[in-house]
Write a structure and sequence with these properties.
By secondary structure, the protein is mainly alpha-helical. It is built from 8 helices and 3 strands. The chain is elongated.
C-alpha cells in the first residue's frame, strides 16, 4: 500500500516506522508503558526561527504564528507537564526572535500563568476542538495589537484632542487681546502723544527752560507763578 501511495506524487514519500516515539506532521506520539502521550513535534531544521517581527509582512501573520502555536499546545498536549513545556518553548521562540516578553505580560498579555487552565474537553485526548472552545480559550486579548489598530486608536483619540487644544488657544488669545494687550496699546499711545508734544515744544521759538512743564500741566502752572 505504501509503494502505491509513493507513486502518486514524486515529491511526497511515505515511510513506516516502528518504535516508542513516532512523529507525524506536527504531532509527536509517545508510547509510555502502554499509554499514548502526544505532544507538539518541533523540527530542529526550522525552529525556533520564525518571521522577524520587524519585517514588513502584514500584521495578521505574526498574530497567526502565536495563535497557531498556542492552539497546537492546547490540542496536542496530553499532560500538564507537556503543556507547560510547550509554553516555555513558545516563550523561548519569541525571545530568540527579539520579541520582548514584557510586551506579552504587561501591555496586551498572553497570560501564561494560572489563567491558562485546561479545558476538561481538551485534556484527555488530542482530538480536535470546535470553534467555540477555541474562541473561549484564545479570545483573551491574546493577539498583539497590529499597526492598523494603533493607527485607528491614534486617529480616534488624537483628532478630538487637537480640536480641543485649538479652541483652547483661541480662547486664550481672545482673553489676552481684550484685557491685556489693550492696556499695552493705551500706554504706547500715551508715550507717542507725549513725544509729539515734546517735539512741538522743541521746534517752537519760545522754548521753555524746563521741558517737563509740557508733559505735566500742573508743573506749567507752578512755573508761571
Amino acid at each position: 500500500m505504501l509503494e502505491n501511495a509513493n507513486k502518486y506524487h514524486l515529491n511526497i514519500k511515505l515511510t513506516h516506522e516502528i518504535g516508542s516515539c513516532v512523529s507525524f506532521l506536527d504531532v509527536q506520539i509517545n508510547n509510555q508503558d502502554g499509554k499514548i502521550i502526544t505532544a507538539v513535534y518541533h523540527k530542529e531544521a526550522s525552529e525556533p526561527y520564525i518571521v522577524p517581527f520587524k519585517s514588513d509582512h502584514p500584521r495578521h501573520i505574526f498574530e497567526n504564528i502565536i495563535t497557531t502555536a498556542l492552539l497546537r499546545a492546547i490540542r496536542y498536549s496530553s499532560t500538564l507537564q507537556t503543556f507547560n513545556h510547550e509554553i516555555r518553548a513558545l516563550k523561548l521562540m519569541l525571545l530568540y526572535n527579539r520579541l520582548n516578553i514584557s510586551m506579552l505580560t504587561n501591555d496586551r498579555p498572553y497570560n501564561f500563568g494560572d489563567d491558562w487552565r485546561y479545558n476538561e474537553r481538551t485534556v484527555p485526548s488530542p482530538s480536535t476542538i470546535n470553534d467555540k472552545i477555541c474562541e473561549s480559550i484564545i479570545r483573551r486579548d491574546a493577539i498583539l495589537p497590529g499597526v492598523d489598530r494603533k493607527i485607528e486608536l491614534l486617529l480616534y483619540l488624537g483628532i478630538p484632542i487637537i480640536i480641543v487644544v485649538f479652541w483652547l488657544f483661541q480662547i486664550i488669545h481672545w482673553i489676552c487681546s481684550k484685557y491685556c494687550w489693550n492696556e499695552d496699546e493705551q500706554q504706547t499711545e500715551n508715550l507717542q502723544q507725549d513725544s509729539k508734544d515734546l517735539k512741538e515744544v522743541i521746534i517752537h521759538k519760545d522754548e521753555p527752560e524746563d521741558l517737563s512743564v509740557v508733559i505735566n500741566p500742573k508743573m506749567k502752572l507752578l512755573a508761571t507763578k
